[in-house]
Design goal:
The chain is mostly helical. The chain has helices at about 1-10, 15-30, 60-75, 80-95, 110-115, 120, 135-155, 155-175, 195-210, 215-230, 255-275, 275-290, 300-310; strands spanning about 45, 55, 55-60, 105-110, 130, 135, 175, 180, 180-185, 185-190. It has a 3-stranded antiparallel beta sheet with strand order 3-4-5. A 3-stranded antiparallel beta sheet has the order 6-9-10. α3 (about 60-75) runs antiparallel to α4, α8 packs across α9 and α9 runs parallel beside α11. The chain is globular, with a radius of gyration of 20 Å.
Length: about 325
């Protein structure tokens, strides 16, 4: 929703939309949901004023917020947004990443007592435990954010780490013709739409930052899998490869708006990049499937709006 507000300001000069985005980002970074000592954001606030957090830190949330603050900096030029972005990366680099091999860890546990301590006392007790699992979709999201950070902050280090992460993910989690959902020494859990789509978007980002055609070729392999294995007859994509003998609702497809919005954005970018119209047609059919329902979802439909905008507007 913040990204949509920033896009509306960019496209149409809407000061009201810019105010929505900046007020949200400013109040988050000023509230208890932001860790001023160790950096990064906690998972969510238990109060409407951002004051009292739930103390878990998630890779997914910090990836999204890193992108938000970077795009706010890109749009406004305000140094406080660049500072917030750098501080998120400081935390991720020190706690939620494998600096030797590449890859981002999934989360850090909630520990209310630990975060209540002064800095001097924190250092005398173990930090909350970290889940070192590499989740494909979240890793791809953070890799994309790191690539953007490298360009906007004129810093080569995030770019190098993002590319190393994507190369590692492809090596350990691409099995057969698709990405597995997570890696913990072995690759597990085929075959989820969000992993293929977020990895595809990150690979296109890697191509944009390097010019290397192999990233486009890898992205096309993931798109081909989505179009052959996950596409639904009425447009859009199922969230997972169906197992007909699975219990209950697991045997029926779920065509969810968030992952399908991301799929449409992925296919639209491929269409512009390769000139292959089949990608554009698939993106259009995906978005058309939700044309009668998106307006019931409030700001949860923001990813859909971004996808529609990108389909209609040249890059």
């Amino acid at each position: 929703a913040v990204d949509l507000a920033l896009r509306d300001f960019q496209r149409h000069g809407s000061q009201a939309s810019l105010n929505v985005a900046t007020a949200t980002l400013d109040r988050m970074v000023a509230g208890g949901i932001y860790d001023r000592i160790e950096g990064g954001f906690f998972r969510y606030s238990t109060t409407r004023d951002w004051r009292i957090p739930h103390f878990e830190k998630m890779l997914e949330g910090n990836a999204g917020l890193l992108g938000n603050y970077l795009r706010a900096y890109q749009v406004t030029g305000e140094a406080r947004y660049a500072a917030a972005a750098r501080d998120i990366m400081r935390y991720v680099d020190s706690v939620l990443s494998d600096q030797d091999q590449g890859g981002f860890y999934g989360s850090q546990d909630a520990d209310e007592a630990y975060y209540a301590l002064p800095l001097s006392e924190r250092r005398s007790r173990p930090a909350p435990a970290v889940d070192t699992t590499l989740y494909t979709d979240w890793n791809a999201m953070m890799a994309s954010a790191y690539l953007l950070a490298s360009a906007l902050l004129n810093d080569e280090r995030p770019r190098r780490f993002a590319l190393r992460t994507l190369d590692r993910l492809w090596k350990v989690a691409f099995v057969g013709d698709s990405m597995r959902h997570y890696y913990d020494g072995d690759a597990h859990l085929p075959i989820l739409l969000s992993d293929q789509v977020q990895m595809g978007i990150a690979l296109l980002d890697a191509h944009a930052h390097t010019g290397h055609s192999r990233y486009v070729e890898q992205a096309q392999r993931l798109a081909a899998f989505c179009l052959t294995a996950l596409a639904e007859p009425g447009g859009g994509f199922a969230d997972a490869l169906l197992q007909p003998d699975a219990p209950g609702s697991l045997s029926r497809p779920v065509v969810a708006l968030p992952a399908n919005s991301a799929a449409a954005r992925f296919l639209t970018r491929l269409a512009w990049l390769t000139g292959e119209d089949a990608y554009r047609v698939a993106a259009q059919r995906t978005l058309a499937r939700f044309a009668d329902v998106y307006d019931r979802l409030g700001y949860f439909a923001a990813p859909y709006a971004l996808a529609v905008d990108e389909l209609l507007q040249p890059p």
